[in-house]
């Protein structure tokens, strides 16, 4: 059993760091390598939701993927207004007509009606920062956001990572993923693979061990 955890201090850290203008540990200036590889394989198509998009590096990468049979449109959201402001500043909108940014608290279930449904929902390093209670809310949100047979792509800290951060993300185990995203709960896990989360060099040597999970809504 993992320790009790509240994500509130971590969320406050997000607000503080974005607002201060100081260097941000998770701002690597490019997409996550795991996301780049998916894009290079032609993985995404149709409507894609990037939840917790930060500065939009992953969203811009996906929006550039060529997919002639089902053109891609990306909606990139973050609950920190400053993050969305900075993502827009880094995006030449004329180059990304298929990318929309918006401020959104993913845990507010009464504020999601206008999003519509998506073929894919990307979560790059959001889920592992949530408490158990808020993970349940978030999973309900995923079911609302995804179309039938839609795909959830999750990149999260793995139990195989040896470093502990008391105020930071919680390590995810395969057993937890299999419990939360079981067939009985309306999900089918397609793959759980070992991956790397890219960080700035000063943080954890520039990388941490992660799971990349591909999960289908039934």
Automatic annotation (TrEMBL):
Residues 48-150 form the Methyltransferase domain. It comes from the Eukaryota. Pfam families: Methyltransf_25. This is Methyltransferase domain-containing protein. InterPro entries: Methyltransf_25 (IPR041698), SAM-dependent_MTases_sf (IPR029063). The lineage of its organism: Eukaryota, Metazoa, Spiralia, Gnathifera, Rotifera. It comes from Adineta ricciae. GO terms for molecular function: polyprenyldihydroxybenzoate methyltransferase activity.
